[in-house]
Every structure is written in structure tokens, then in C-alpha cells.
């Protein structure tokens, strides 16, 4: 997992418990614990904003990116994503006319 959650470090630096943080930002302690362990798929900006406000930190303090080791499955997968060709959407030429008949009632 190249994104490592660092919420536990920030909380420890601020001497704040899971229960205290959950009460202050109105999120369940279970969800705070899931964030600390990295068992989440997404975080709302509003949630990150409240966490940063209470802990007096920046979003970058909460997460760290670690490059995968070369040759691992993660590195191969990441390389495939980065080097994937970009598909352009099909577009009509400028001034193209639709061939669909239109009934115009007088």
C-alpha cells in the first residue's frame, strides 16, 4: 500500500485519544480507528478539514506516499496505470450536421 496513514502519529503528538477526537469531530471511534489502520477507501474533504482543524495539522501530515519496491506486483501495477495510453473520446467534426430528420410543424 503506497499511501500510509499517519493519523496515529499526529494524534500521539497531540496526546489525543480516539474517543476525544471522535467526539470533537462527530465521527464514530470505529471510523477513526479504521482511518488510523488504513482500512478506508476514501475520506471526505469535510472530514479531513475537521480533523486538521482539531489536530492543528495539514492534510499532508495525515498521509504519506511511499513508492513501491521495484519489481513487486504493486510497482508493476502502478507502472501499467502510469503508462496506459490515454483514449480520446470520439468527437464530431466542427460544423457536423445531424442526419436525424426533424419534424417542423407550422
From TrEMBL:
Give the Pfam families listed for this entry.
HTH_26 (PF13443)
Q: Which residues form the signal peptide?
A: none
InterPro entries cross-referenced by the UniProt entry: Cro/C1-type_HTH, Lambda_DNA-bd_dom_sf
Domain HTH cro/C1-type positions: 7-62
Molecular-function GO term, any one:
DNA binding
The protein depicted here goes by the name: HTH cro/C1-type domain-containing protein
Upper lineage: Bacteria, Bacillati, Actinomycetota, Coriobacteriia, Eggerthellales
Amino acid at each position: 500500500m503506497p499511501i500510509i496513514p499517519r493519523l496515529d502519529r499526529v494524534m500521539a503528538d497531540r496526546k489525543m485519544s480516539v474517543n476525544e477526537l471522535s467526539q470533537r469531530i462527530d465521527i464514530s471511534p470505529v471510523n477513526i480507528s479504521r482511518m488510523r489502520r488504513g482500512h478506508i477507501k476514501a475520506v471526505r474533504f469535510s472530514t479531513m478539514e475537521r480533523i486538521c482543524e482539531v489536530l492543528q495539522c495539514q492534510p499532508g501530515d495525515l498521509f504519506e506516499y511511499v513508492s513501491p519496491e521495484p519489481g513487486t506486483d504493486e510497482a508493476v501495477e502502478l507502472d501499467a496505470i502510469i503508462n496506459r495510453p490515454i483514449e480520446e473520446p470520439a468527437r464530431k467534426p466542427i460544423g457536423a450536421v445531424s442526419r436525424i430528420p426533424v419534424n417542423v410543424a407550422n
